[in-house]
Amino acid sequence: MNIGELAQRTGLTPARIRSYESAGLLETVPRPRDGCRAYPPETLLALAFITVAEQVGFSLDEIRPLLPSGQEVWDHAMLRVALRRKVAKIEALELRLVHSKRQLVALMRDVGTRPDVTTREASAQRVLSRVMGKTA
Predict the structure, then answer these.
(1) pTM for this one?
(2) Cα–Cα dist 1/38, whole Å
């Protein structure tokens, strides 16, 4: 199939497909004399995998070794390891986000509860102390 048909069947633009090819994610298809490259049917599966992998946070560099090259078959063990690593990274990010959210909520509370007798400078110092991790 040609690049136009690939684009239509995958929802990707021809430029995007070419960029994957130039990035080494797709096997380079030689251009015959008539100028229309004929991509093998396996290209559809590779493009679907690349699209999903990008959507869940894999970079192109992370995707490249997961794709079979030439006539190789998919390395399911390597794919499972990569998926576990990505899940672990997402879980670590979730923990950091929960921690950041707690800090921001506490900071919002501190900023919103300024004692009436406190000067702006004292209030600012209290909030900065909280941000710096010191108790005020």
Answers:
(1) 0.71
(2) 5
